[in-house]
Amino acid sequence: MDQFSAMQAFRRVVEQGSFSAAANLTGQSHTVLSRQVKNLERQFGSQLLNRTTRRLQLTEAGTLLYRHCVEILDQMDAMTLELSEHQQQPCGTLRLSVSSAFGELELGHWLPGFVERFTQLQIELSCTDRFVDMLDEGIDLCLRVTDHLPDSSLVARTLAPSDVVLVAAPSYLKRLPSQISADNLGDHPLLGYNRLAQPQRLRLTGPSGSQRDVLMPTRVSANSPMALRAAAIAGLGIASFDRFIVHDALQDQRLVQLLSDWRQPARTLYALYPQSRYLAPKVRVLLDYVQDYYRLPRWPA
């Protein structure tokens, strides 16, 4: 007996409410469908349907088998579709959302190679610092560096850690009468990201594990990390950034890391996408591409 075909026949009979209706739908004869259901009953040693002249009614065993048939057959359909699409070249429009700083500083390193490899994809890029509603806005994939994930309905794939560093320009440090320490940090102006609930407060953990909250005065605040980066490089004060935002400026010494033995709460680069039974090929190839790119540390200290 072809058990898979018999399960399909049983499901169709149950969902259509009769052998005749199922026969019309599938193009199989009433006799063939009836024989397949009887073979299932014989195999499992249980009556699956109570048959009357007017209607069919599931038995307790039939209800249990029907539930498993739906689950198994749906999984098989999803697997068939996914494997079929896996063989195809990804195509269409891929809608990608990233933060403004990530878009400006990171995409140039890997997006050209991705576009060159997958020539039938069109990339529609959205750069915004707010958390987007991916379903409402039709976003396929979102890349975010964050310390919290507010929407549990999204699947989050971890790509890379992103530590947070305290920095200042050499020109700012030259004007100071004394060296910056954890004890006098609160006397210095912080360039604050005003989308945070407390943009002037820093939480630091010292070498011994001790913690302290530091409230710093305001000199410049902005809703743009890139604007704050420019202000820090210009010597307007101290700033706290994800390392990827200032990695190049630290390397060429336009900025200097401060209090390197004190840590701030770490953050993580995630790839976020809506839950689905299977991933569209265009999303899968981008996920695999960025995960492979960020497998090696990109922003070493």
From TrEMBL:
<keyword id="KW-0238">DNA-binding</keyword>
<dbReference type="InterPro" id="IPR005119">
    <property type="entry name" value="LysR_subst-bd"/>
</dbReference>
<keyword id="KW-0805">Transcription regulation</keyword>
<dbReference type="InterPro" id="IPR036388">
    <property type="entry name" value="WH-like_DNA-bd_sf"/>
</dbReference>
<dbReference type="InterPro" id="IPR058163">
    <property type="entry name" value="LysR-type_TF_proteobact-type"/>
</dbReference>
<comment type="similarity">
    <text>Belongs to the LysR transcriptional regulatory family.</text>
</comment>
<dbReference type="GO" id="GO:0003677">
    <property type="term" value="F:DNA binding"/>
</dbReference>
<feature type="domain" description="HTH lysR-type">
    <location>
        <begin position="1"/>
        <end position="59"/>
    </location>
</feature>
<dbReference type="GO" id="GO:0003700">
    <property type="term" value="F:DNA-binding transcription factor activity"/>
</dbReference>
<dbReference type="InterPro" id="IPR036390">
    <property type="entry name" value="WH_DNA-bd_sf"/>
</dbReference>
<protein>
    <submittedName>
        <fullName>LysR family transcriptional regulator</fullName>
    </submittedName>
</protein>
<dbReference type="InterPro" id="IPR000847">
    <property type="entry name" value="LysR_HTH_N"/>
</dbReference>
<dbReference type="Pfam" id="PF00126">
    <property type="entry name" value="HTH_1"/>
</dbReference>
<dbReference type="Pfam" id="PF03466">
    <property type="entry name" value="LysR_substrate"/>
</dbReference>
<keyword id="KW-0804">Transcription</keyword>
